[in-house]
Amino acid sequence: MSERVEFVLRTILIGAGATLVMDAWALLLAQLGIPSLNFALLGRWLGHLCEGQWMHESIALATPVRGELLIGWCAHYSIGMTFAALLLSTFGLKWARSPTLRPALAIGLATASAPLLILQPALGAGIASSNTPAPVFNCLKSVVTHTIYGLGLYLAALATAKVRSAASQRSKARSSL
Q1: Interatomic CA distance for residues 90 and 83, integer angstroms
Q2: 40, 130, 82, 109 alpha-carbon torsion, rounded to 10°
Q3: How far apart are the C-alpha atoms of 12 and 124, rounded to whole Å?
Q4: What is the 3-state secondary structure (H, E, C) of 64-128?
Q5: What is the per-residue pLDDT across 112-130, written as a single tens digit (0 to 9) for each?
Q6: Residue 59 CB neighbour total at 10 angstroms
Q7: Based on the number of CB atoms within 10 Å of its own CB, is 5 exposed (0-12), middle (13-18) or buried (19 or more)?
Q8: pTM score, whole prediction
């Protein structure tokens, strides 16, 4: 397997795996009565972004967009994979073949800046949720959630660490026949 193919494969697997871990965290929070982002609202924002509207006073009051829930979920997983690509670009395939926790957590924490500085202001919540009734709680929730995403990057990398060696062994076995 070429390194380019390996990079793409690991980006998809690690990004989707980490996003699944983050979603499991969101389900746990929901069970505790702590809501997280409704991905339909992310899809709505993206739909309006395509029409040239970047900022909203309140995305919940904006006109719904056809297919917004699907758009939001697809964007959520695409973003998770993009951040996994950032991790692999920063720390390399060598890291992915033998992952350690610290780089994954560092990227996870760094990704917390996206909701705090981009998404929340664009949706009408203000920078770092400053326009919400509980900005400190919401910021803390974002930081913890993205730390969980970082843990998910590490766990997904661990789960896929042997992908190349297994594929290489099969390839070597075929070529020796």
Answers
A1: 10
A2: -130
A3: 31
A4: CCCCHHHHHHHHHHHHHHHHHHHHHHHHHHHHHHCCCHHHHHHHHHHHCHHHHHHHHHHHCCCHH
A5: 999 999 999 999 999 999 9
A6: 19
A7: exposed
A8: 0.90
